[in-house]
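Problem: given the chain below (277 residues), write out its structure.
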Amino acid sequence: TDVNGVFNISFVVPKDINYTIGKGRISYYAHDNDILDAAGYYNDVVIGGSSENIFNDNEGPAMKIYLNNLSFISGETVNLDPILLVDLSDDIGINVSGTSIGHDIVAVIDGDTKNSIILNGFYETALNDYTHGKVIYPLKGLLPGRHTLSVKAWDVSNNSTSGEIEFIIEENEESTLTNVYNYPNPFSNYTVFSFDHDLVGNELDITIDIFSDEGRFIESLHHQLYGHSPTINELKWDTSLATGKPVSKGIYFYKIKVEAKQLNRVRESKFEKLIKL
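Solution.
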């Protein structure tokens, strides 16, 4: 909290620290939600020892594992390079310190522990909520067929949780977008397009082609953005054409194309319907 420029901060210190008393560093960042930001650090905070007020916590994090999107069910078929999604939550936070052997967020494919995947750097805490976060990690180089994937994670008191899923890699890579829709629909002044994709971690060129119900081309919307998440849902159309005039009411169809040029991969949707009131 901030009162007249004085900040009070509370946080949970993981068990995986150096208990020798010494000086540590606090790094901080601030912004004003506009154009100004600031960063700095403080080197004279004393850290070490242990407290008598230790959390009495014996439960590991809550964990859910998905591939590509949150509708995934273990055993389903996925594309050649699926996106691993791990939803984690714990009352005292997730351990991503990386300072203690064996307490990392780890994924193992097909029981191959010698090639475990350390996921600490791919964990992102929810905004203003240290108890919840997610891992987004692109899986590469998997062969067609049935696979297993297990994940193990720890909270800051070193309680662990493990989970496992099964999935099948398609022989021929799927090249379509999923969960494609627009909202509101029907709409009056604007609508927003949303879809799921499997090109996370890449620069994306997105084209939305809009047609009349008679198949006549109306307009193309172009967007360039970085695929931080497997879901994109911020592409807005205010129904104004390049001439500045809004389209008339009626039924329209659209198709979305997403290209990751660095991967030489293209994903396309089927035609979807939207209604302008």
